[in-house]
Design a protein that fits this description.
The structure holds two protein chains of two kinds. Chain A is of the alpha/beta class. Helix content of chain A is 28%, strand content 21%. In chain A, the strands form nine sheets. Chain A has a five-stranded parallel β-sheet, with helices on both faces. In chain A, strands 14-21-15-16-17 form a five-stranded parallel β-sheet. In chain A, strands 7-24-29-25 form a four-stranded antiparallel β-sheet, with no helix packed on it. Chain A starts with 13 loop residues before the first strand and ends with a helix. Chain B is α+β, with helices and mostly antiparallel strands. Helix content of chain B is 36%, strand content 22%. The longest helix of chain B is centred in the N-terminal third of the chain and has 11 residues. The chains are: A alpha/beta, B alpha+beta. Chains A and B meet through helix 1, helix 2, helix 3, helix 4 and strand 7 of A and helix 1, helix 2, helix 3, strand 5 and helix 4 of B.
């Protein structure tokens, strides 16, 4: 049974009993301790802590002895810990004086040797009691200099989201914390929670173990946390750097432009945002049909960025209304993220007919809730193309009232570029696929209106695909003469690629593919001019565009002479973590969608998860960012952890001994020299975190209990959450200042 | 106000709550669920359970109520008065909707008094 000597503390700060309470309070706060011991004639007579300081608040001029707590109970250092806890509870005191007997029998005297505070007893309770209802909790911040492995999902994510952290927060029911972590690098989680191509899930370690189809549903968890925050009507109040007086123009308000605008505002730059459309969001709001996301949530996320003080200029077509030379003259830097917002119409006979439209234009018009001119409600539509844009255009056509919609592509059905479940969903609501053909001409009736599209079959056996991107190599397409056929329709939509609609006379460096020429940091050959997003990379994913925005903002910040990039986050947050072995019994679950008969309008089709679904999905995360923390003073290099590791992720290396070191681990978690009782051996423990699944079996089997698991993460302190409708925001500032 | 404040969940073990109190130097720990405060766990109750050998419980088993909730714009004198009247060592700072945004401890207030 532990005795109080185990938690004995030396006598700390003292003060005389006749000191004024105000002075005592100053001494108390300066000392950093929890209480002052009040001394009279060399004896401790009481305690002056924060609770007593509150009592002295109205009349701080009185002496300490007027407010101090007394008598201060005492215990012997040889008494049990329970005895100390008992007296603290009975006397409602957080401090107990510790005495020690001295002198011979019958003449024993006691002398004060220190104190025991409730914190030490609580700490001992925490150390020595087995958790029966374990939970992950925030335990404060400190910098232990631990190894910080980057989890595979975070490595794969173009914007390096702290996925393990936000998934873990969902598993704890801390949904808003999760949302905040997401927002550290992702300004559009409502979109990416539904539409991301999720390279993180492709690289999820759960998928390595249980098969790729069973990766953690990271994308849907992001959506869940965002839905929760949206339902609570909160927003993020960013702590921005002071205004530095420099101004940057951002051209294009798509994900790249908005992200750059947000980052630049955080860095203290004045940002003017130019958008040629009548609304912000770029392809998010003008190309992606509204049934695939929640428009209100997107507007909420956009507004959060605008509220940071971004000056917005809508309906300003840079390159036409405003010249690049003028922007370069007016601003310290210019970031071009104009995207690839114009659809390509193949130059086949009849492509200039009034009922022929590009998918990008069709979707853009529909995004304003307007039905395009000549659209045949109740008539047939042919969509030419097999990618995601074609699927969107086809579904939108069905939901806009077309009677029958064809999607026609060169690629065979099993090689269509459209990914995910989109094609299945589209077919469920009536889409008809016609593959292995190429468009030959658009047919018109006598009055000059479209009445069909003529196709010709291609030799599918000759088709070849790029091994990396999976895209069709167009030079392998061979038409089969004599296979011409016409699909009757009254409207044709070309989803056959996108081009950048930006004047070439503006002096912006272009590549041979007519994309803007810039490096991965967004630098162009013109010093003040930066470019990024689809207009540099070609049509890509939303998350890649956001990454461009982050990179360009950093580049601009460096170009304009900033010494410290914004992403230098000095704070380290350490959290203990729990293991979720029961998660092995769950498999991946996809969010439900509306039944087909209810998907005939523009209502968002993906349904939300409930708490149980989200927490179950989150529990499946291996928490790959969790690290072993080995107490080197306790480890005896016995090798038990190495022996029991089911993934062979650990190696215990003892110098001078031959042991198996096949894990491939290189992260050193322990380096110790043992005492003479262990022969003075020296060695280290190495971990391969690509193998470790945090099963904690090493922790369980360690005979000296020297292994624990902790999470280390760098927290963004520039964020705090506030209600959408500000509540006493001025008062909050006042209160902070007062405290 | 401490923006990053220690709190626990109803399912938090008493051992974990004890660790958190020790690490965060607080005597009372708000019990939060679904961004709402249920009440608080006092160090005295944990000490009592420890003496009785009943540490197998959870925070939910000994949550006390109410924990006073205040708005961020509460003046310091009012915070002092509330702390004294309630006998608490910690006030929870919430939005008007009851969402916790921070905690105000006797230590925070005392520091403000000392600095005044």
């Amino acid at each position: 049974m532990p005795t109080l000597s185990k938690v004995l503390q030396p006598i700390g700060e003292t003060c005389p009993a006749d000191l004024s309470a105000a002075d005592a309070l100053k001494r108390l706060t300066a000392s950093g301790s929890d209480a002052l011991l009040v001394v009279t004639n060399g004896s401790i007579v009481g305690l002056f802590g924060y609770r007593e300081a509150l009592a002295a608040y109205a009349d701080g001029s009185g002496p300490v002895e007027q407010y101090m707590r007394r008598p201060l109970p005492g215990r012997n250092v040889a008494d049990s810990m329970e005895s100390g806890a008992d007296i603290m509870y009975r006397e409602d005191t957080p401090v107990v004086l510790m005495t020690e007997d001295e002198g011979p029998l019958f003449r024993k005297t006691s002398r004060t040797v220190g104190i025991v505070s409730a914190y030490e007893v609580l700490e001992e309770i925490g150390k020595t009691t087995t958790d029966t209802a374990s939970n992950k909790v925030f335990t404060g911040r400190k910098d232990l200099g631990l190894n910080v492995p980057v989890s595979p999902c975070q490595r794969a994510c173009p914007i390096h989201q702290d996925i393990a952290a936000y998934v873990d927060y969902v598993s704890q029911g801390r949904y808003l914390d999760s949302w905040l972590v997401i927002h550290e690098t992702n300004p559009f989680p409502s979109m990416l929670g539904r539409l991301c191509n999720h390279p993180c899930e492709t690289d999820c370690k759960r998928g390595w173990v249980q098969g790729p189809e069973n990766a953690v549903s990271i994308k849907s968890l992001k959506r869940f946390a965002t839905d929760y925050a949206w339902a609570r009507r909160v927003k993020i109040d960013w702590q921005r750097a002071p205004e530095n007086g420099k101004r940057v123009a951002v051209v294009g308000s798509g994900p790249a432009g908005m992200t750059a605008a947000q980052d630049l505002r955080l860095m203290g730059y004045g940002v003017d945002l130019y958008e040629r459309e009548a609304k912000l969001g770029g392809l998010l709001s003008a190309s992606i049909p509204h049934f695939r996301f929640d428009l209100d949530q997107l507007n909420w996320e956009i507004q959060m960025i605008v509220d940071m003080g971004v000056n917005v200029f809508l309906n300003k077509n840079v390159g036409k209304d405003v010249k690049i030379a003028q922007l370069l003259n007016d601003y310290e830097a210019v970031f071009l993220s104009v995207g690839m917002m114009t659809g390509r119409i193949l130059p086949v006979p009849g492509s200039d007919l009034p009922e022929v439209i590009s998918a990008m234009e069709f979707l853009r018009v529909r995004s304003y809730d307007v039905i395009p001119d000549n659209f045949p409600r109740g008539g047939d539509v042919v969509v030419i193309g097999g990618g995601a844009v074609a699927t969107d255009a086809a579904q939108t056509s069905i939901k806009t009232g077309a009677r029958k919609v064809w999607m026609v592509s060169i690629e065979p059905a099993d090689r269509l570029p459209a990914f995910g479940n989109e094609l299945v969903e589209a077919r469920e609501i009536g889409l008809t696929l016609h593959t292995g053909v190429i468009v030959n001409a658009i047919k018109a009736d006598a009055s000059g209106h479209v009445n069909g599209v003529e196709f010709i079959r291609v030799d599918e056996t000759k088709l070849e695909f790029d091994p990396e991107s999976g895209k069709l190599l167009i030079n392998t397409v061979q038409k089969l003469p004599g296979t011409e056929h016409v699909i009757p329709c009254r409207y044709a939509i070309f989803a056959s690629g996108q081009i950048m609609d930006f004047p070439q006379d503006q002096g912006v460096p272009l590549t041979p593919r007519k994309l803007m020429e810039a490096d991965t940091g967004g630098h162009t050959k013109i010093g003040k001019l930066f470019a990024g997003g689809d207009s540099v990379e070609g049509p890509s994913f939303i998350v890649n565009a956001i990454a461009w925005g982050h990179r360009a903002a950093r580049s601009i910040n460096e170009f304009l002479g900033a010494a410290v990039p914004r992403d230098a986050k000095p704070l380290t947050v350490i959290e203990t973590t729990d293991d979720h072995r029961e998660a092995d019994y769950y498999l991946r679950e996809e969010p439900p969608i509306l039944p087909a008969e209810k998907r005939m309008d523009m209502t968002p089709v993906e349904l939300p998860w409930n708490d149980e679904q989200a927490i179950t999905a989150a529990l499946r995360c291996f928490q790959c960012d969790t690290v072993h923390h080995v107490d080197e003073s306790t480890c005896i290099l016995c090798g038990a952890c190495d022996d029991v590791c089911p993934e062979k992720a650990l190696d215990v290396v003892v110098y001078g001994e031959s042991r198996d070191t096949s894990s491939g681990g290189f992260v050193e978690i322990c380096n110790t020299v043992l005492g003479e009782e262990f022969g003075g051996k020296a060695g280290k423990i190495l971990v391969n975190y690509d193998r470790c699944t945090n099963c904690r079996i090493c922790e369980d089997h360690c005979p000296v209990n020297c292994i624990t698991f902790q999470r280390v993460r760098f927290r963004d302190d520039a964020m705090q959450m506030i209600p959408l409708t500000p509540v006493a925001s001025g008062g909050k500032v006042a209160a902070k200042a007062a405290l | 106000m401490s923006g990053q404040f220690a709190f626990c969940f109803p399912s938090t073990s008493l051992a974990q709550a004890a660790r958190m109190m020790a690490q965060n130097r607080v005597y009372e720990l708000p019990v939060i669920v679904d961004q709402r405060c249920l009440g608080y766990v006092s160090y005295l109750d944990i000490l009592q359970r420890y003496v009785r050998g009943q540490l197998g419980a959870k925070a939910a088993d000994l949550v006390r109520t109410p924990l006073p909730e205040v708005r961020p714009d509460l003046p310091v004198p009012a915070a002092v008065r509330l702390l004294r009247e309630s006998g608490r060592q910690l006030l929870l700072v919430t939005t008007t909707a009851g969402m916790p945004v921070g905690a105000l401890t006797a230590r925070d207030v005392s520091r403000a008094m000392a600095a005044a």
